[in-house]
Every structure is written in structure tokens, then in C-alpha cells.
Amino acid sequence: MSIAQNLQSNISSGNDEIDLGKLFGILIDSRWLIIITTFIFACIGISYALLATPIYKADALIQIEQKSTGMPALGGDMAEMFGGAESSSTTEIEIIKSRMVLGDTVDKLNLTTVATPIYTPIFGKGLARLLGDSHQISVSRFTVPENTVALTSDVLTITNSTQGEYSLANRDGRELLNGKVGTLATNNGYSLFVTQLVGADGATFSVSKISRLNAIQGLQKGLSIAEQGKQTGILQLSITGENRAKIKNILTDISQTYFLQNVARNSAEAENSLVFLKQHLPKIKQQLTIAEDKLNRYRQQNESVDLPLEAKTTLDTMVTLEAQLNQLTFKESDISQLYTKEHPAYISLLDKRKTLLAEKARLNKRIEKLPKTQRAVLRLTRDVEVNQQIYVQLLNKVQELSIVKASTVGNVRILDNAQAYSQAVKPKKSLIVVLATLLGGMLSVAIVLLRAALRKGIESPDQIEQIGLPVYASIPMSDWQSNLNKKNKNQHTMTVKQTLLAISNPADLSIEALRSLRTSLHFAMMEAKNNILMISGPSPEIGKSFVSANMAAVIAKTGQRVLVIDADMRKGRMERQFCTSNKCGLSDYLSGQKNITDIIKQLGIDNLDFISRGDTPPNPSELLMHPRFSELMVWASANYDMIVIDTPPILAVTDAAIVGAHVGTTLMVGRFEKSVVKEVEISKQRFEQNGIEVKGFILNAVVRKASGYYGNYGYYQYSYVNDKK
What we know:
CATH topology of the largest domain: Rossmann fold
Largest sheet: 8 strands, mixed
Number of strands: 20
Helix content: 40-55%
CATH superfamily of the largest domain: P-loop containing nucleotide triphosphate hydrolases
Radius of gyration: 54 Å
CATH class of the largest domain: Alpha Beta
CATH architecture of the largest domain: 3-Layer(aba) Sandwich
Strand order of the largest sheet: 13-20-19-14-18-15-17-16
Strand content: 15-25%
Structural class: alpha/beta
Number of domains: 4
Shape: elongated
């Protein structure tokens, strides 16, 4: 019983348990398929592990620190001005992957030029590596016309390995240029500088030029960046590739480029402020000179008027106010880059300026009360001191910013320089072999179970008995008969004693099963209307002729006279069982060409005669309905103790139903795992519709299987013969 039928039987009986013994038996029966499939997958895994190109990994470690101004002693405004907010690790990762950083690496290492050896597809590269036949090429410069970039790859062929000469051609075979290692070769817009070329004459290499953007995008996909831990600010950069030296150089350059741009970025703010101050410093100095000249001229004209103490105090206060206002102007310029006017710090600055301006207006009113000469001297002196203070302030700022710029170190530190691992990270050879082996085992087991689930052939007599048809015998598959069939194909001069299993090997298990069938038939035919036995089946190629011929021989050995008739006048082949001819047979008698005595063939076996099918007629069914067939049955029944008739399949033609009307006992034959229960059931109904009762069923060619034993459907067979024999 197949898995599907077994499960259906369990469900119908209310049993939801799965027969694990049955499943285990199925796996044992298909053990060679499982072993071979698993072995093939294991070999594939081993081959892949050996031939796959090893992939190496290089990594580097970078620390992102909090931003520093370079000189903590500057403090105060400078710290607030250049401190800024700390960049997150996510931001720094995106900066490293930007075209600004990676583009510089692509340009330095000439990654837009791709040069690789050409090997045989699939296995060529791996075999070359295993055999030590490695080709190498290094190109430092390769330029092509603008319209051919990233379209095709060219083929470089070594023409003279000793001299280092080569030729470059496109995919169509058109030669582009010839060159030599260490020399720049140019022709028609192409230029190529090969620094290293290792290989035999005729070795080929693929040389292509890709766009800078494509090279950057390829580097972005291959570069992996991850933060070590949570909020640690330590980034691990890693990249994989076939060439250990190349990936190490790429990662080293990326780390250095990122480090340098970080320093430049941190000093950019101080640089911009320094440029601004240096541009305004000459103007302030010029304003100071003009103010001093005006004050001197006025004093000379008015013979050096000295200010009284009250005016002196007012002047000092005015100068202090102007200095504070100038300081607020500088601070507003810086704070406007960080905050909007709604920010509390910006609002506080504006309020402070408003207060100072109000105080300045009050002092201006006091000055208006002074004499004219004193007012003029006070105004000119104020301009001089204010411009002088602004000039000194600018000079101090310039010096401070120069110190900040010179002391900027950035907030990036390279902890571990790029290093390439000595062991390949891919492929994992042992893991691949194990996974391939497991995959082969699981796939083969799945195929076996699926095939068993889809198989609907008869596997147990119980399946036939469930449809109300008793099973008279289960005939095991005979290895001896299989060998006989092979001999029959190769030899044409064999005797019936060599071809008929019941004669050539009477101790075979199949013949023992037929002897058991003989005993069952003896009791089954006691109430039959005559001694005629018809053997039929639902479909061809199920062994009807084998059962009929050997069972007749077994019955003949008991001393009964047996007549075997091949009633399959369409495709009957029973004459092969008896090593005789099909000429002068049943069809010749039914058509009136021969008499009964003319068609009886003596086989050389005691008590066993045979009537072959004869020539193939155009109307077999009509001949069987002729009265001569009825006369033949009456004559045979009177002259023989047993008549065995082999008929065509009932589901294919109606011949068996016609013959069945003349016989007393009808048996059906089905083949193990080939015949289907539904076919047997329909065949039984077909016979019953024609008034023919099927006495029983014979299960032929049963194969001993572990699934049958574990599933409690096995049959037990014993060979009980003379040891000496």
C-alpha cells in the first residue's frame, strides 16, 4: 500500500497515526538511490569547494571623537564659535561612503581600469589556480575614446612572453594597438601602459574601462562599515576581494582620505573667519589713520585744547560702549550661523545691544551740553580710540584664529590600519561540503517519499480484498525467469525445458506459489459448471501468459491432462513460453481452415498440450462468437482434465467477456506496483455486467520490500528443497 493509500486508510478508519515503520521501510528499499544521490551532491560540494575562487577580507578600525578646537586655552567665545555639535556615527558612515571620499580612492588607484585573465568558463579559473598556472596583469593607465567607455571590454593577447610584447583587440577581433610592458602604447585614441604581464604566449586578458561613477558605485557596494558596540564611535571598515594586496591598498587609501578630509573640514571654519578678518583689517587701519590725522589737525588749529575731567570721563565711557557694541557685532556674525533670531541666545544679544545703544544716546545728549570746542575734541578723540580698539581687537582675533588653524587635528583617529586576512573568508569549504551532502540526502529522501506518495500500484493483497475479491496467490518475482527472458532475446534455439520456469527450475519460489494456487483452484472449481479456467487481467504486460503457462505445467505434473489455449489473437505471445510457433492455431480453426486435431501442439511435456493463437485475424471478437469456438470448448472439456485459456485484457477489448461465457472459473491477474486497484475494480464490474463471476485474483511479480515487512504487508517465503540437489 502506498503512502497516500496508507494515509487514506488511516483516515477512513479513524486512525491519525503515521506508520513510521512503513516510511522507514520505503527508505530502506530506495537506499541505493539515496546513497548515490547523496554521493553525487557530496562530490559536487567538494568540487565547488576546490574550484571556487577564494575571497579574502581586509578591515580597518577608526574612532570618531568629539570635536575639539585644537587649543583649549582659547576657551570662551572661540570654543563656542568652533565647538559645534558632535557628528553621529551614522553621519560619518555616510561621509565615508560618499563620492567625495571614494572618488579620490578610485582616482588614486586607477579603479576605472579593470584587467583580468580570461579562463575557460565555470572550471577554468579554479583549475588554473590548482595547477599553479596563474596569469597576472597590472595596468597603470588605460584610456579609450569617450564614446566607448563602459560599453565593451577589449582582449589583450600575449604575443611574445619573453620580450613582454602584446596586442590589444576589441571583441570583434579588430586590432587596436600593439605594445610592450613598461612602455606607453597609443593608437587611434587608445593608450595603454602595462606595468606587469605574466603568462605564456597566447594567453588572453580582458581589459575594460568603466566610468568613474560605476567604479565608485561598485566600491560602495563592496565596502561594509559598522559601528562596534552601541554609541562607541568606533567604526570597522571591511572589504572583500580576490586580491589581498589590492583590497588592503583600497581600504588604506579610504581610511587616509577620510582622515585628511576630516582635518580639513574642522579647520575650514577657522580658515574662512581668518580670510574675512584679513580682508577687513586694512580698512580698519586706514580709518584709524584718518581719525588720528583729523584730531591732530584740529588741535593744531585750536592750540591743543585739553579736556576737563568730566569730558574725559564721558570719553572713556563712550569708548567702552563702542568697544562693547563692536564686540556684539562680531558675536552676532558668529551666532547668526548657528541660530535664528527666535533663539534665546540671539534674543539676549539683541536686548544687550538695545541697552548699550540707549546708554550711548544718553551720553550723546550730555556731550551736546559741552562747549563747541570741547565737543569737537571729544568727538575726534572718541573716533581715534574706538578705531584703535577695533584694530587691536582684529589683530588679536587674527592671531587666535591662526593658532586654531595650525593646531586643528580633527576628531578622527585611525586605531587599526588596514590589514588583509591570510585565510580566505569564502568559500567555507567544510561547510559547503556538509551542506551539499545534507542537501543531497534530504532531496533524495524527499524524492523517494514523493514517488511513494504518488505511486498508486497494488502493493498488498489487502487492497484487493477490500473491494470484495479474494486473493488466491501472491507470486513473487523470479530472478530465474528474468535471466531466462534475457536468454530468450539472445538465443533462438531453446527448448521448452529451458524456457518454462516450472520445468527448468521447479524449486523456484514462484512455482511454489503456483502449487499453492493449484490447491486453491482444486476447491474453487469443484462447483464450477465445467473444467475450463480463464485467466484475464485489466491491462497488458502484467504476466498473464507466464501464470497460465507455468500453472498448466504444475497441474500437468499431478497426472492431469491439461490443454493451454492462447485466446489472445491480437497480441498473444504464449508460444514463446513453449518454444513453438504461433502458426496453425486458434484463428485458423475458428475461420474453418483447420480441424481441432490439426491445431493441437505436443510440447514434449507429459499431459500438457497447447493451442497457439494462429495468424492474426482482422476480426478476433467475431471469430470467438462463432459456434466453432463453443464446439472447441465442448470437445476440450471432454478430452482434457483441465483447460487453461489466456485472454486479452478485459479493459482493452471485449474478447475476455466472450470467452468467459464458456468457462466455469475466471481468475484475474494483476502485477505488483503496476496494476491499480481501481482498474481491478472496474474489470470485475465489467465481467459481472456480462454475467461472469470472477472467482479470485492473482498478484504477480511481487517484490520483497522492507516497506512491506515494516508495514505488516510482507509475505513470508521459505525455500524447502534438498540441499544436495
